[in-house]
């Protein structure tokens, strides 16, 4: 089963973005204060427990607790911040993203296989 690595520092985020040249990264931005984000988190977990694409790394940013990391991700990837948000990154660039109720296990499966 795939798991999400918690991104708590800008250095950790930068390393993950660099590593996306070898292995794509799906970054999930999550707010612990938002019920919509809680639902999206459950959908992410459902996807990861079912049949995730094992050739992708999975990371999570808690946007309230780690605001500098969240802001850096938005700036570096040039993707307007939303929460919850899923961003697929290859070669350090965002190649697909979605947010809010569009984050479902089915949507993730369809875009990540």
Explain how this protein is built.
The structure is a single chain. The protein has 113 residues and is of the alpha/beta class. It is 39% helix and 25% strand. It has 4 helices and 5 strands. The protein has helices at residues 10-19, 35-49, 67-77, 105-112; strands at 4-6, 25-30, 57-62, 85-90, 93-99. A 5-stranded mixed sheet has the order 1-3-2-4-5, sandwiched between helices. Strand 2 (25-30), helix 2 and strand 3 form a beta-alpha-beta unit. Helix 2 packs across helix 4. The longest helix is centred in the middle third of the chain and has 15 residues, at 35-49. It is globular, with a radius of gyration of 12 Å. The protein starts with a strand and ends with a helix. The mean pLDDT is 96.
Sequence-ordered SSE layout with sheet pairings:
Layout: E1 4-6, H1 10-19, E2 25-30, H2 35-49, E3 57-62, H3 67-77, E4 85-90, E5 93-99, H4 105-112
Parallel strand pairs: 1-3, 2-3
Antiparallel strand pairs: 2-4, 4-5
Structure keywords:
alpha/beta; 113 residues
Compose a concise summary of this entry.
With 113 residues, the chain is of the alpha/beta class. Helices cover 39% and strands 25% of the residues. The chain is built from four helices and five strands.
């Amino acid at each position: 089963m795939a798991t999400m690595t918690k991104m708590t520092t800008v250095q950790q985020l930068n390393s993950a973005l660099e590593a996306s040249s070898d292995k794509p990264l799906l970054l999930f931005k999550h707010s612990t204060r938002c019920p919509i984000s809680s639902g999206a988190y459950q959908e992410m977990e459902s996807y990861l427990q079912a049949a995730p694409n094992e050739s992708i790394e999975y990371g999570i940013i808690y946007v309230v607790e780690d605001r500098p990391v969240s802001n850096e991700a938005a700036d570096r990837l040039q993707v307007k911040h939303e929460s919850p948000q899923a961003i697929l990154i290859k070669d350090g660039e965002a190649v697909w993203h979605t947010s809010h109720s569009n984050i479902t296990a089915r949507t993730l499966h369809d875009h990540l296989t």
